[in-house]
Amino acid sequence: MLRYFFFNIFFYTGVSVVMLVAIPALIMPNNIILWLGKFLGNWAIFCLKFFLKTKINVIGKENIIKNENFFIASAHQSIFETFFFQTIINSPIFILKKELLKIPIFGWHLKKINFISIERNTTTKENLGFFDTVIQTINVTKRPLIIFPQGTRTPSEIKVPFKKGVARFYEYLNIKCLPIALNSGNVWPKNGSMKSNGVITISILEPMNAGMEKNYFLKTLQENIYKEIDKINNLNN
């Protein structure tokens, strides 16, 4: 309990200080804020290891695609991956809930680096303009898009169907998809206390080539990620 208390104090204070100090970066090149994102990712790793004695394993780092466009479809269990991915993926673009962009200072930084918001609980038809915005942003910036096809943070033991939007992006972008499985929710859950002396495993699976039929892609992506999550959980039990 004491470790959890100190983690929260140091981690969130650090994030707040960086956000405040970085306000001048809002009128500077995007690279500065992207670097700060990587710094905060490493800050999260440090706090987890120092205060909670968390061990972090990365499997399949050699599968990260280089020298060509790709997007990432990842399991989403914790706030952890939104920080961590910025340390292993170069200048990613996240799709996030619209409410985050309304947070003063924090939301300003997210807008500055082209993070894209979506109105949750809306239909695909209502989001057609959103898909166009994402595709245009990715084609112009050439930065990797990170999608959480579960739609929200989901415990590792729950297998919700993946949102069909990930298959739409796969079809429209016509680039490789890099699937990622993880178990971060076992250590840093959406609700409840954090676990000390835990193990977070991030498994980067083999890329899925462009050109598959979109429904087959969605089915295969979901099966592969959930199968890998089960494997990770069995290893850590």
TrEMBL record:
> Which residues are in the Phospholipid/glycerol acyltransferase domain?
70-185
Per the record, the GO terms for biological process are: phosphatidic acid biosynthetic process
Q: Which UniProt keywords apply?
A: Acyltransferase, Membrane, Transferase, Transmembrane, Transmembrane helix
Q: Which SMART domains match?
A: PlsC
- The residues that cross the membrane are 5-26, 32-52
Which Pfam families does this one have? Answer: Acyltransferase (PF01553)
UniProt keyword annotation of Membrane present? yes
Which Gene Ontology molecular-function terms are recorded? Answer: 1-acylglycerol-3-phosphate O-acyltransferase activity
> Which PANTHER family does the annotation name?
1-ACYL-SN-GLYCEROL-3-PHOSPHATE ACYLTRANSFERASE (PTHR10434:SF40)
- Protein name, please? Phospholipid/glycerol acyltransferase domain-containing protein
Source organism of this protein record = marine metagenome
